[in-house]
Amino acid sequence: MPYRGTVPSLSPAIAEIRLAVRTALADLPEGSTVVVALSGGADSLALAAATAFEAPKRGIRVASLTVDHGLQDDSAGVASRAARAAGELGLDALIVRVEVDGEGGPEAAARDARYRVLRDAAADVRAAAVLLGHTLDDQAETVLLGLARGSGAASLQGMAPMREDDDGLRWVRPLLGVRRETTRAFCTAADLSPWSDPHNLDDRFARVRVRERVLPVLETELGPGIAEALVRTAEQLREDAEAFDEMIHETIEDIVEHAEAGISVSVAALAANPAALRNRIIRLVVDSEFGVSLTRTQTIEVARLVTEWSGQGPIDLPGCSAVRQGGRIVFTASGR
Q: What's the CA angle centered on 123, arms 117 and 129, to 5 degrees?
């Protein structure tokens, strides 16, 4: 007789996150390796579990990397539990301890150290991609922080679902369309025990204040759906930026020339472009040649060499300087 029993239903949270991961993995070569950044929190643990389920279908090997920043009590224990959970999911688990120091405060320094270790680990196992557990809520917070800081369109684009670095390594965020509450529901349904990072409740951090105070007030006063609206804004800005970048790359080929110890750009060509394109060209040229991201104030000062030229001298910039010489703006490496 045919089976007439009840088939257990799959948790909606598990189904949603597995689908998101399956979609992200579809763009990777079969038989490749991926590294999951695993903190042990609900977001990264749900990502690791879903990846462990979906990757074998495409013959993809999965490793996890847990970075012990040593910033909290029992950080080694937290890292060990995360790695043990990864092992139980069938992943090759690795823990790396790092020393956190540098400019920008402990949060920025920890992030820099984490990405550096992830990049090295990916190179060691010849991974095609690193998977990161950022959610829709993380994206909304990022956009709102960028808006509050007046950081411009680049910050308001938020985090890209996928970007490829100069070494061809892909940084993939499969969960950018998934709410944080869904990752928690996934862990509950999958009987996983995520770690709760106390830093996520520490209101010394601007991101925590946005999460715990600002977004709830916006939801209350303006209605639900604020996080989704912020994410849609980021997506639209990213589309615009990609179109701008295509136009800029086509333009740069005709107006940029290499100069001694630097690079130069045609004044006439810059003047012929609208301000938005002119400023983007300046930022892109400096970033490409010297690896420096100019602030808006610095960009405008360089643009004044084109639009408000009155014989002013060189402008000192991070890593380089800019000066007008005849019909060109010449960027020269610092110390030359």
A: 90
CATH code for position 53: 3.40.50.620
Confidence of residue 12 (pLDDT cuts 50, 70, 90): very high
Residue range(s) defining the domain that contains residue 37: 12-222
Residues 259 and 265: their CA atoms lie apart, in Å, by 10
Q: Which residues contact 159 (CB under 8 A, 6 or more apart)?
A: 134, 138, 139, 142, 173, 176
State the pTM of this model.
Answer: 0.80
* pLDDT value at 1 more than 70: no
The answer to whether residues 83 and 185 belong to one domain is yes
**In one letter, which amino acid is 71?**
L
Domain count of the fold of the chain: 2
| Cβ atoms of residues 138 and 101 within 8 Å | no
* Nearest residue to 24 via CA among 164, 160, 173, 133: 173
295 φ/ψ angles, rounded to the nearest 5 degrees: -75, 170
> Which tokens belong to 325?
């010489």
Pick the residue with more confidence: 253 or 311?
311
C-alpha span between 216 and 220 (Å, rounded): 6
Same domain, 210 and 316: no
CB 230 within 8 A of CB 143: yes
Residue 55 maps to a domain: yes
- Whether residues 218 and 275 share a domain: the answer is no
CA distance 222 to 66: 39
Q: Which amino acid is at 12?
A: P
Instruction: Tell me, yes or no, whether 201 and 269 share the same domain.
Output: no
In a domain? residue 28: yes
Contact 196/41 with Cβ under 8 angstroms? Answer: yes
Do the bridges between strand 328-333 and strand 320-325 make them parallel or antiparallel, or are there none, so unpaired? antiparallel
